[in-house]
Amino acid sequence: MGRRAITQQDEWYAEGLRFTCTQCGNCCTGPPGYVWFTDDELDAMAEHFAMTRDEFLRTYCHKVQGRWSLGEVKVGGQYDCVFLERDAQGRALCSIYGVRPTQCRTWPFWPENLDTPEDYVRASHDCPGMTKGLDGQGDFYPIEQIRIRRDATEH
Ligand code: SF4
What angle do CA 141, 146, 147 make, to 5 degrees? Predict the structure, then answer.
């Protein structure tokens, strides 16, 4: 069953939200997760590595429930995104930042995080960028920007 349509009454975040990524990397590691992508996003990522679609899928992806997801690497009991790198200060870096899929670009404004304020607070427990936002710090995202990210995300 698909998601129910979101109405203006559902938009408890109508006044906007604040968020700035601190590059902690929590969203790119942890328990096994999935990063879905569209065919266009697959083409962009494959082109980034000068690979064919098949080469990219075989090298960096795995199938989950019949669908391709970006792969993961087990590091110290955690599952890192195959493209997660860290600099000397431990900051998380996405090695395909410019061509990362929509699912990554639209965090934290995913429908499931925005359902209720409680869902948003729950999601913020693992994301210091959201926590800072809830404390009134970080970049301001007006409702129009949140809607674009929210409605671009399907996973
Ligand atoms: S968990 Fe939040 S603060 Fe940390 S890297 Fe991901 S988006 Fe940024």
Answer: 150
Question: Tens digits of per-residue pLDDT, 65-115?
Answer: 999 999 999 988 999 999 999 999 988 999 999 999 999 999 999 999 999
The closest of 147, 132, 105, 131 to 14, measured between CA atoms, is 147
Q: β-pairing, 78-81 with 92-94?
A: unpaired
Read off the pTM.
Answer: 0.87
State how far the Cα of 59 lies from the Cα of 57, in Å rounded to an integer. 6
For residue 106, the 8-state DSSP code is: T
Question: Whole-number mean pLDDT of the chain?
Answer: 94
User: Cα(first)–Cα(last) distance of the chain, in Å?
Assistant: 13
Helix or strand or coil: residue 27? helix
Ligand 1 neighbours (beta carbon < 6 A) = 21-27, 92, 107, 127-129
What six digits make up the tokens of 100? 């990362």
Minimum-distance ligand 1 atom for the alpha carbon of 26? 1
> Of all atoms in ligand 1, which is nearest to the CA of residue 24?
4
